[in-house]
């Protein structure tokens, strides 16, 4: 049976929303991240379709410390979310402060999921600005603490983006509208 985590597919609008959320959560001054979610019962011939994401700080409000410090209660909240929505974790994404999207020693030795096949994405510049798939780092966990990394054009080996990408002005408008709505809900 093929590895269901061989690669990921994500809709361009969902990826854009995810990157905007990461930029917003990090505020341009700290790392942020999210788990990538796919329907539990889907089989994609070696490709998992990302249909949603769970932001680290929604699961663990203490997780964004400049870097990422994800606590046990965050994993408990993640498991509850996955059960409630009928999804599974197929990858994760977090931001780095500059253009470098390689794994730090901490990233490689303390992954958000240590399961072989898990795909960890890293976005540069705290995901602020216009980030493309070529800007990301993609890292597949091979097991035993080993990783295989992809950069620039090779990222498309692990991350397939479908659909049309919204123009920057429309993404910004959508982001501002979502922030206003979120702010009103939390009052």
Q: In terms of topology, how is this protein built?
A:
Blueprint: E1 7-11, H1 12-26, E2 33-39, E3 47-50, E4 52-55, H2 56-59, H3 72-85, E5 87-95, H4 105-109, E6 119-123, E7 137-143, E8 146-151, E9 159-162, H5 168-185
Helix pairs in contact: 1-5
Describe this structure in words.
The chain has 187 residues and is of the alpha/beta class. 30% of the residues lie in helices and 27% in strands. It contains 5 helices and 9 strands, in the order βαβββααβαββββα. It has helices spanning 12-26, 56-59, 72-85, 105-109, 168-185; strands at residues 7-11, 33-39, 47-50, 52-55, 87-95, 119-123, 137-143, 146-151, 159-162. The strands form 2 sheets. Strands 4-2-5-6-7-8 form a 6-stranded mixed beta sheet. Helix 1 (12-26) crosses helix 5 (168-185). The longest helix is centred in the C-terminal third of the chain and has 18 residues, at 168-185. The protein is globular and about 45 Å long. The mean pLDDT is 88.
